[in-house]
Write a structure and sequence with these properties.
heterodimer, A: about 900 residues, alpha+beta, 4 domains, 7-stranded mixed sheet, 6-stranded mixed β-barrel, 27 helices, 22 strands, B: about 110 residues, Arc Repressor Mutant, subunit A, about 55% helix, about 10% strand
Chain lengths: ~900, ~110
Amino acid sequence: MRRSLRSWLWRVPIDQEIDEELALHIEMRTRELVGRGMEPKAARKLAIERLGDMTRLKREMADLGRKRDREMRVTLWLEELRDDVKFAFRQLKNSPAFTLVAVLTLALGIGANSAIFALVDATLRRPLPYGQPDRLVTIWEKGETTPRGYASPPNMLDWNTRSRTFEKIAGFTPNVGQMAMAGADGTPETVSRQWVTAGIFDVLGVKPILGRTFSAEDEAKRANVIVMSESFWRTRYNADPNIVGREIRLDGSLWTLLGIVPKDFELLGQTSMWAMRPFVNMPPRARGAYMLQVVGRMKPGAEIEAAEADLRAVADGLAQEFPQTNKGRSVVLEPMRDSMIGSDLKLTSMLFLGVVGFVLLVCCANVANLLLARATVRTRELAMRSALGAGRMRIIRQLVTESVVLSLVGGALGVAIGAAILSAAPSLIPQGLLPPTVTLAFDVRVVSFCAGAALLVGLLFGVIPAWKATEFSSAEVIGADSRTTTGGGGTLRGLLVMGEVATAVLLLFGAGLLLRTLLAVESFDRGYRAESVLSMLVDPLGSKYPTPESLQQFFDQVEAEIMAVSGVKAVGWTSSVPLGPDQLDGYSFDIVGDPPLPENQRPNLNYQVASPGYFSALDLPIVAGRAFDSRDTRDAVPVCIINEAFARTYFPGRSPIGRQIAIRLTDAPQDKPKVREIVGVARQVKGRPDEPKDLVQYYAPMAQDLADDIYLVVRPRSGRADAFASAVRAAIGRVDKEQLVSLGHVMTLEDIAWDVTGRHRFRAVLVMAFAALALLLAMVGVFGLLAYSVQQRMRDFCVRRALGATTNDVLRLVVGNAVRVIVTGAVIGLVLSALLGRLIVTMLFGVQPLDLTTFAIVTIVVAITAALSIAGPAWRAAHIDPAVVLRSK
Amino acid sequence: MTTPPKTPNALLHGALDALILKTLAKGPSHGYAVARSIEEATGDAVLVEEGSLYPALYRLERRGWVEAEWGTSELGRRAKLYRLTDTGRVQLEAEMATWRRFSAGVSKVLFST
């Protein structure tokens, strides 16, 4: 130890130090002066005088002295820390097995936490990538039946001009569509395009990196203008700046490319370009077409409540002005961030955070257990230190330093594990679960989270064992026979393991519920057979097939050509595929002959165009009446097929076949309803399994309602549907020799369904993995506890055996304690599960939070794993040879 | 009217540190002994201003150039002894080099003809 440090340890208070020093000085000087012949009194006076202003001098010295002491304390502390850290590393190196297990446990816990933290940070905390995002709100139009619906363009325009709390309001279509353009090699390719209104870039505050965005003049001129995403511009045009301002042919007409915007804008929809949809001089019925998702930028300082009140007043005014379309309609506001992230994702993030938090706690408990066990082994070493003069706090500090070093090493490894998880994450996370701007990045925040977590964890699992380890009387320990050093903290270790078991049970139970949800979702009967149907979006260019007849002819030819492909069983056409995009909603109808329903109580219909082959291609049974056939031509009587929910709801107890329904596209009175005769009832198609209620749906024959964006569905006789993709493309190519058809969304219906169940699968798999990890750790804990106590009580057992106890008696002793710990832990875990189960009720489907099957399965799983972890130590205890053990020590 | 020349030690304020270090290089001693030994060594030409000696010692201690411990004085009383540290020794070398350059420069100007 350095001299200055020793002097620090024996330091006197600073004022006394100064007084003594100066007194000595004066004394010595006085003696010197007296020695030179001065009179003692005068000598003393002179000596004092020569020191100058005594008060000031003392103050100055005291000041300097205090600073010196403070710095010295820091230096000392740092030096001790350095020594402790060095010592800690030496200790860890001396027990590699312990170190390996502890570091790996911590690394797993911290790694999992860091990955989940990245997810939570991205979804819950990061603001939208726009300027002043707090001022952005999503504005939903509220109707009688739709609490949060899209807005009609004229309403949006009126909100924009009449509101006082908004700087600007703009909108976009939620679905991303397709356009055909000439590809780089001259062949047509499909690009994704999203419709937006002119002001959208201003509202979001997105600045183009090149060129400009849409202006009011563009809209007034109804110009064909587009803005391109940076990534598409880079890949397709090699970031050529000259492309800006040029015209591009899309879907057969010319569009001017105004500018390039950075990729943050893709939040609205993952698309290559945004096309301006001008809304000027719209007919009155346009007020009933709800097609825009609307966002607004509030004026600085405006609160969302005030903005909502403001817009409500505007909506009320519109309802009075346009009662036919707007009566009973209002608005709902929501921070844009909330509407973009979605409550489901938020909940999922919270769930994961909770789960990994528990896993980390189990990790901590396990390492704490290891430390407690180790501390008993080290009791003699610690007692020796204590006897040599180290205070209890000093020893605790050193032990805690060891655990923090341990956790920091674990944390460093955890960062690596977290980074690995995150780099694999994009392929593991189902598409559509995360909005495009939510990017999982391993950044400074995640690393600092890891560091913080590691430190906290080190303290958490280090302090209690250190405290326990120093509860001894050194004389007793050193004096004692080494054989009788029994471990303190046995109860504590039991409690820790109990907590681990409880946590593992809780996580297993949650995982069980989510797994049962996944099974329910997957085995769910959708009403059609999805396994082997190929679907693709076919979009012939308008100019090539100008009349409905020529278009119909084209579709017929394609159908015939594909049917001729060997192995194809059925071919059909439809406006939308189950679970797919492009669903047509919001149509209302009256039943001809029944009294009309009041305007705002008219039911909402989901409407689908289908060819005769559609039903056989999807194996969708017609339960009453007939399917479409060649009779249902363009000029024949308009017909339709309704689904089971339709029949059940509107024709209870009577046959719908032969009845007529009058369908309106909007609520506007000038919109003439289309009368169709019901010829059949189709089996109910369940879209999403977790759909709250059955969709009321009707199908119209394709020949009578032709659209040029249509899905082709192909069912092969056998084998995988995606194997037919190229044969089908070739067949289309034979009909469409000039290749003017754009194809998109080529996938099997199963893929689509898989995407829909993706989030359930993701949640179930992830929570299951974490629960398994927790269970493993808990069982390692049980094993450790038991193995240790067997080790400790070996002599005890031997004496018992020698005194006549049977193997069974010993086994009962060993197992009894472990079983008590496990059963108590499991019961606590099950009680917690019952209490916490309802927190995830919104993520469940087809299973209740208090599911008895899950309770039973979890109990069985825990029982089996517990038996496995108990078996080893118990076997060892049962096979003691008393003679060997007693002699060995 | 001419102002009297400044007392050497006021002029040599910066040199006090160097003188203390040099003195302590001979061995540990307490504050008075440091002052006395400087006075003796310079033939009383440099009067150590005692008001600045102790703060200087404290400053040097804070910088780690000297360290203090309790010892016994010639009078048999407890005395605070200062001792040069290794870094203090290095510092002394540096101070001496600086001083050599400085005094050579000043002399060159003052005594040039």
